[in-house]
Write a structure and sequence with these properties.
Helix 1 packs antiparallel against helix 15 and helix 10 packs across helix 15. This protein has 16 helices and ten strands. The radius of gyration is 21 Å and the shape is globular. It is 46% helix and 12% strand. Strands 2-1-3-4-5 form a five-stranded parallel β-sheet. The protein has a five-stranded parallel β-sheet with strand order 7-6-8-9-10, with helices on both faces. The chain is α/β, with parallel strands linked by helices. The longest helix has 22 residues. The chain folds into two domains: 198 residues, Glucose-6-phosphate isomerase like protein, domain 1 (Rossmann fold, 3-Layer(aba) Sandwich); 151 residues, 3-Layer(aba) Sandwich (Rossmann fold), CATH 3.40.50.
Length: 386
């Protein structure tokens, strides 16, 4: 098989990441002065970050950065599912002006995210829309916007928008820290430079990762399904890679944490036919459990790809799994890991899809196209009982 014959668009998006950094940086710097004023940021005591699909994954992935940089009590920073925040989670009006709700949608068209922002705004919360479209529904639903530089025309299935959302969330976390005085002036500039350093650390090895994932795809392309496993900071990346396997390759690919995998997913039949991708971070508190799970997965016959900046020894892995090492984030900035650690899984997905002649998002499926065409969008209804 000639690798050139299977270079899909998801792969192209991975290779665009360095240029995405360059293009997004100017947009982000322009947005800094136009978003929530510092005098409001400094009074924030609680943060909700949410979105749908990849945007929800980005919200979850950004939590360690907000807990590290913002100066807000860690217990008061969360990334609930959008449907929960828009319908069920209480948003009391008392001290609402000290609660920040960030709704992420690259296109700005997410109805559920707009519903969340509208509800939060009606309760008196400070609301921010993170989007690439300043005139979008989501932007109009919030008090403030933070514009990112996603190029909508090329960004499908949404890899660069995920990167841009994370980039902006890291900057927003640093902005709050500066406003509250817990981080020195200039922290935002440092974060932007560290993002650049981490992004470009992949550039010299990208061709090697691409070649390795192509070779692995030749073995994995005919599996009946896949799973993505991650804990803590790796959970969001597992979600993201699993989502790309569904969207691009049309494969069932649930994402789960290691504990849940050991209680439930381990019992799936034909384990030798389920490709299992683990995401791990050296130094995380879950290292021993993740290693135990890898050992068990291989022991029952699962094909395993373990993506991490650590070694087998770091995680206590004693079996013959594929341990794929990737660069660590800059020292002291471990929270940047989700910005790039999905690269191997995304390249693997791109090749699996191409080798199986899959069309992204089932766009060749006439039944799906007809249902989509006839779908009628319901008007937004904000339910606010709390």
């Amino acid at each position: 098989m000639n690798r050139k014959d299977y270079e899909g668009h998801l792969r192209d998006l991975v290779y665009m990441l360095p240029s995405t950094y360059e293009g997004n940086t100017k947009t982000v710097r322009d947005s800094i002065s136009k978003t929530v004023p510092k005098e409001i940021m400094k009074n924030i005591e609680r943060i909700f970050i949410t979105g749908c699909g990849d945007s929800f994954h980005a919200a979850h992935a950004s939590l360690p950065a907000f807990k590290e940089l913002s100066g807000i009590d860690r217990s008061k920073i969360s990334a609930p599912r959008c449907i929960e925040l828009s319908r069920n989670i209480p948003l009391p009006k008392e001290n609402a002006d000290k609660t920040l709700v960030i709704g992420i949608s690259a296109t700005g068209g997410s109805l559920r995210t707009a519903e969340t922002l509208t509800r939060a705004k009606s309760r008196g919360c400070v609301t921010m829309s993170l989007t690439s479209r300043p005139e979008s529904r989501n932007a109009k639903s919030a008090d403030y916007t933070f514009i990112v530089g996603t190029k909508d025309s090329t960004d499908s299935p949404g890899l660069n928008s995920y990167y841009c959302s994370l980039y902006a969330l890291y900057v927003i976390a640093a902005l709050i820290g500066e406003a509250k005085g817990v981080k020195e002036e200039g922290t935002v500039d440092i974060i932007i430079e560290k993002i650049k350093e981490y992004t470009y650390s992949y550039e010299p090895i990208l061709d090697k990762i691409d070649e390795d994932m192509f070779e692995l795809a030749k073995v994995w392309k005919d599996y009946r399904g896949y799973e993505a496993v991650g804990d803590g900071i790796g959970y969001a990346s597992a979600w993201f890679v699993g989502a790309k396997l569904v969207e691009c390759a049309g494969m069932i690919a649930p994402a789960v944490d290691s504990e849940q995998w050991c209680h439930v997913n381990t019992f799936a039949h034909t384990p030798e036919n389920i490709g299992t991708i683990f995401q791990g971070k050296k130094g995380d508190a879950n290292m021993s459990r993740l290693g135990e799970t890898v050992n068990h997965a291989v022991g029952i016959g699962r094909p395993v790809l373990f993506i991490s900046d650590g070694t087998k020894e770091d995680f206590g892995i004693k079996v013959d799994a594929i341990i794929y090492r990737i660069p660590s984030p800059p020292e002291g900035y471990d929270f940047l890991m989700p910005l790039m650690d999905y690269v191997p899984g995304s390249l693997l997905t791109s090749y699996i899809a191409a080798m199986n002649n899959k069309v992204y998002f089932r766009r060749d499926d006439e039944r799906r196209a007809e249902v989509y065409k006839n779908a009628v969008e319901k008007p937004m209804v904000v339910l606010d009982n709390f």
